[in-house]
């Protein structure tokens, strides 16, 4: 049973113009809804082309059957053609039918409203049905949302009736969905790996900053001999990295095994000095970081082969980019910190242990 008229009056000419042509929309239940031809033609090019087709008998009234959807959905559809609006409750009840109608009759505004409404109403239970509809109706946003939901909740979705029905009736589409899930998982793995790598470059870039800060300004435990210790200042703002680096520098200065003796910790510190030298732009005489000059003169560890050289070059490039990025990202924060009176420079306390001089320069 249809519930209400599509327009204020179905049987009368709304404008009172006796020359206005009416088209009869015929629903699946046999109900006819008269709609002015100009309303239909201006809302939909499909209706426009149906209306403009020549009729067999000029006097015969033109009718357009809309079957396959409930009568009330057609009523709501016709209402939209008049007003460009659709009540929430109608969207709730007939969203999927309205999407199909908007696709078949090319009503883009309704299609976009249906897409948004259906995205908001997606559930594990309805996602497979909506996904199939989105594919049939060429609604890419809705399709992608459905695919993502299926992909994220696949273990639960595959238990639903909708999924079982799809499996039995459209194995090709099932395969398409499974491929999407597979590709999504691979993409996630790649982006996890990239994030991990990215964070390594940021850590190295921070270590480079700390190394320069330790060797020029000095920090709590390590600093150059010519820096006068300043008392009672808080640790620098990268203290967790800075402190670890200071411990490594102290170890590097005092270790008996050293790099050639196979000490892993010394080897790591050696690499950090080398990395500094690769990104250092200061003239030799101005840089206070140990070994910088020696590496720049080629006195450091030689690269074993071309591949290793390339890998090192790439690492240096990535660290430089990470450094530039982090300085851009942090510039605002730094400004705020500087205004608040906390600089990046650390203080050297009374018990400071200046070890840089002990390193091989
Ligand atoms: Zn520090
Ligand atoms: Zn060591
Ligand atoms: Zn340097």
From TrEMBL:
The keyword Zinc applies. PROSITE patterns: BTB. GO terms for biological process: regulation of DNA-templated transcription; response to hormone; response to hydrogen peroxide; response to salicylic acid. It comes from the Eukaryota. One of its GO terms (cellular component) is nucleus. The keyword Repeat does not apply. SUPFAM superfamilies: POZ domain, TAZ domain. CDD domains: BACK. Transmembrane segments: none annotated. Pathway: Protein modification; protein ubiquitination. It holds the Pfam family zf-TAZ. GO terms for molecular function: calmodulin binding; zinc ion binding. Residues 19-90 form the BTB domain. Keywords: Metal-binding, Ubl conjugation pathway, Zinc, Zinc-finger. This is BTB domain-containing protein. It comes from Deinandra increscens subsp. villosa.
